[in-house]
């Protein structure tokens, strides 16, 4: 990375307020504290980064991330990255954002001059009943989305199967549907589940069962592509998934694994091994989502569609997220803080 000459730094703690708590496999994600790092250069340019630790998904607390950033700032030599992944995401994001602003470019164009300024993203659709999920799917498709993601695994499989069939009926054969079981299914039942889902034309299933070994066993005979998410939340996790042949795709959350630089390296590792890469948010604030989106554009991780349409879940954000227009995420030099 071309490191800009940093002459000033400011670390701010902010509260990210959600419209309502978001149910995940790791509990409900409600309002949480995040850190914004602003780095400046001698010409008055500023670059922002965000650290948004998420309990259950990242190893550190917001206090630990803050300390790691302060330790990095206090080290005049700035040898090596900050000690925790979300702190590293904030620092690397701020450095790259500063470098981009110093040359007057949106971040994605600074990283790759040929990268697109808009791309399709998937929409998360929710509904506990077949009718509810079908209605949510139609709404998302009417808004322009061509890829939908639905959670499964919290209800009995027979119920999920009827829900997903109703969603498929509602949106027709040409819209991609991906499912996320968050590791909830029993290993011995998963092959049967996947056989029955295959007829519904599923793009992939995230984490049908928990753990790299179990994923590898399931994937060997699966008629549906398998994606690793919870098993790939760290660089070691991604390497383990790739090494074990445990998935067809990895879900990469730049904000969780250590930011743009680390995520780009992990994406290359996965792609070199023939795996697809799905870039997603950490339900983080506008700066983190913006950086993940600019990275996805810059490294061309746009198919399958990234899962970056999460800013609508945030009621009080820490900045301006990339705009969503007709199912496309639109990047500029203005999104961010
Ligand atoms: Mg997932």
How are the SSEs placed, and which strands pair?
Elements lengths: L7 E11 L3 E3 L2 E3 L2 E9 L5 E6 L10 H13 L10 H18 L4 H5 L6 E3 L2 E3 L4 H13 L4 E5 L5 H15 L4 E5 L9 H9 L3 E5 L5 H9 L5 E3 L6 H10 L4 E4 L1 H4 L2 H13 L3 E4 L6 H14 L14 E3 L6 E3 L2 E3 L7
Parallel strand pairs: 7-8, 8-9, 9-10, 10-11, 11-12, 12-13
Antiparallel strand pairs: 1-4, 1-14, 2-3, 4-5, 6-16, 15-16
The structure holds magnesium ion.
The site of magnesium ion has 6 residues, from loops.
Report on the structure:
This protein is of the alpha/beta class and 337 residues long. The protein has two domains: 8-104, Enolase-like, domain 1; 118-330, Alpha-Beta Barrel (TIM Barrel). Helix content is 36%, strand content 22%. It has helices spanning 62-74, 85-102, 107-111, 130-142, 157-171, 190-198, 212-220, 235-244, 254-257, 260-272, 286-299; strands spanning 8-18, 22-24, 27-29, 32-40, 46-51, 118-120, 123-125, 147-151, 176-180, 202-206, 226-228, 249-252, 276-279, 314-316, 323-325, 328-330. Strand 4 and strand 5 form a beta hairpin. Helix 4 (130-142) runs parallel beside helix 5 (157-171) and helix 8 (235-244) runs parallel beside helix 10. The radius of gyration is 20 Å and the shape is globular. It binds magnesium ion. The site of magnesium ion has 6 residues, from loops.
